[in-house]
Amino acid sequence: MSEDQKKQLEQQLWNIANELRGKMNADEFRDYILGFIFYKYLAEKMEMYANTILETDGITYKEIKENSEQGKEYIEAIREESLEKLGYFLKPSELFSELAKRGNGNNDTESNFILEDLQEILNNIQLSTMGTESEEDFDNLFEDMDLNSTKLGKTTDARNKLIAKVLSHLDKIDFQIDVQTHGRASQRDVLGDAYEYLIGQFASGAGKKAGEFYTPQQVSMILAKLVTTGKTKLKSVYDPTCGSGSLLLRVAKEVEEVSNFYGQELNRTTYNLARMNMILHDVHYRKFDIKQEDTLEHPQHIEHQFEAIVANPPFSAQWSANPLFTNDDRFSQYGKLAPKSKADYAFVQHMIHHLAENGTMAIVLPHGALFRSGAEQIIRKYLIEDRNYLDAVIGLPANLFYGTSIPTSIMVFKKCRENPENILFIDSSKHFERGTQNILRPKDIEKIITTYRERIEVEKYSYLAPLSEIHENEYNLNIPRYVNTFEEEEPVDIAKVSAKLKTLENKMSDTDKELIALCKELNIDTPF
Fold it and tell me: Is residue 319 a part of any domain in this protein?
C-alpha cells in the first residue's frame, strides 16, 4: 500500500467516525468507532482463517449452512482450531459483512433492525473465549459500546439507523488483512497505523483527558529508540501506565522482534482500548499481558523483570504514600517514599524494581522532578550515588503533550551502564516546530537519538556531567545547570546609535519647519 493509499484509508475511517459522532465528545464516540473497526477486523481475520482450513473441502466459510448436520460439524471443528490459533470464534452469520448486509434496507432511508443481533454477536465473541487461554484478553472487551445510549439517537430506530449506516460504510472499506508484502510492512501494519491515527485524532479533540490514553507519536518514538539502543530483539517490554498501548507497540517497530508485551492501566475504558490495539496489531494473545489496576497500589507483574521499560505516567499525580510501602521491595531501600502529592518518583522506583540487569528504561517526567528537594532529592541521591543507575536526562520543548503545556523531560536509567563515570544531559527544548501544539520534527528526534547513542557533547545542546559535579550540585538535575544555552546579544555601537539619533532629530526639525510654514499659508494655528 502506497503512502497515498494509507492516507486515504485514514481519511475514510475519520470521515466515518465524524458521521457517527454527531454531538458526542471525542472521547465518547471514540469507543464506538474503534469498537466497530475492531469487530470488522476480528470478523475478517476469522473468515480468512476459516477459509484456509476449508480450502481442501472446496468451500468457503460463508457457504456453510449452519443448521445442517455437516455445517455443525464444520463449525465445531473450526471453532476448536480458531480458539487455539486466534483466541476467539465467530460463526459465519456473525461476520461483520453479513451483519452489515442485514442492516441495509431497500433504500438509503430504510434499515433493517440489527441492534439486538449486534449486541448478541459482541457478547458471543467474549463468551466464545470462556474457559480458554484468551479469556482474560477478551473479557468485557466491548463493555464501553452501549448500543442503547441516547447519545447514538433518542429512539431505538434512530440508533439502529445510525449504526446500520456506519457498518455499511465500514463494510465498503477493504482492510486487506491477508495481504503480505515481502520486506515491507503487511497490510495489518497499515490498518494498525490507521487505528493509531484515529486514536491520535481523538486525543487532539479530547483535551485534558487525552493524556490518559495517548502519548504523542514523536515522544513515543524517542522513548522507543532510547530503550532499544544496541538491541535488535527484545525478550520483553513493559509499560506500567500503558494507556492505549501505543507506546508498547512503538517499541516493537524499532526492533526485529519483541517476544512479550506487558502493561498495566488504571482506567477501565483505556484498558479495553489497549487490548484491542494489541490484537488489531496482530500481537498474538499469548504474547501480551495487559492488566487493569492501579500500578503503584496494586502491581500486577510482581515477579517479572523486563528488558525494556517505557512510561509516560500522569504528571505529579497523587498516591497514597502508605507507610506500609516502606516494607515494599520496590521502595524499601531508598529510605523515603515519594511525596503523597507527587508520585513521579514512585513510578521511577516501581520501574527500577522491574528493570532487568541488561535492560533500559525511559520515563517522561515534569521538570520539577529534576530539582525538587525533600524526599525526591534523597531518592535522586540514592539512584545516582548509591546505585549509579541514571544514564541520561533529556529536556523536551513545552506544549508537546495533550492537556498540558508544561515542558517535560525524559530520564533514562540502566542498571549496568556502559559509561558509569558521567551522566549525559541534553537540552532539546529549543528544537521544535511551533504550532497550536508544538511538534518535534524528524531532524529534532534524530539529533536527540544520535547525541544519546554517540554520547557526545554539543555546544549549547549537550554535556557529559561527571558524577562529582552532580554531587557538588547536591543532586539537582535541573538541565540549565549543566547545559549552557545562553545566547550573547550582539554588542551595541553607541557612537553609531548616537549619530543615527542626531540624523533623525535633524529630519524631525526640518519637518516641523515645513509644517509651520504650511499652517501659516493656510492661516491656521500651528500644532506647537
Answer: yes
> Domain check: are 238 and 340 in the same one?
yes
Residue 380's CATH number: 3.40.50.150
**Sequence-separated (6 or more) residues with CB below 8 Å from residue 259:** 233, 234, 235, 236, 287
Cα 173–176–179 angle (5° rounding)?
165
Q: How far is residue 466's CA from residue 77's CA, in Å, rounded to a whole number?
A: 65
**Helices 442-454 and 217-227 meet at what angle, rounded to 10?**
20
- State pLDDT tens for residues 84-138: 999 999 999 999 999 999 988 655 555 688 999 999 999 999 999 999 999 999 9
Q: Are residues 132 and 253 in the same domain?
A: no
Beta-ladder partners of 390: 413
Same domain, 370 and 506: no
Element (H, E) at 139: none
Domain end marker among 182, 204, 226: 204
Query: How many whole angstroms from its chain centre is CA 26?
Result: 16
Would you say residue 242 lies in a domain? yes
Closest CA to 77 of 94, 93, 91: 91
How many independent structural domains does the chain possess?
A: 3
Beta bridge partners of 274: none
**Spatial CB neighbours of 361, under 8 Å, sequence gap ≥ 6:** 227, 308, 309, 310, 311, 351, 352, 355, 412, 413, 414
SS3 323: helix
Examine the domain organization and report whether 138 and 243 are in the same domain.
no
Reduce the DSSP state of residue 298 to 3 states and report it: coil
Same domain, 335 and 422: yes
- Residues with Cβ within 8 Å of 119's Cβ and at least 6 positions away in sequence, in order, are 147
| Domain boundaries, position 503 | 493-528
pLDDT tens figures, 226-266: 999 999 999 999 999 999 999 999 999 999 999 999 999 99
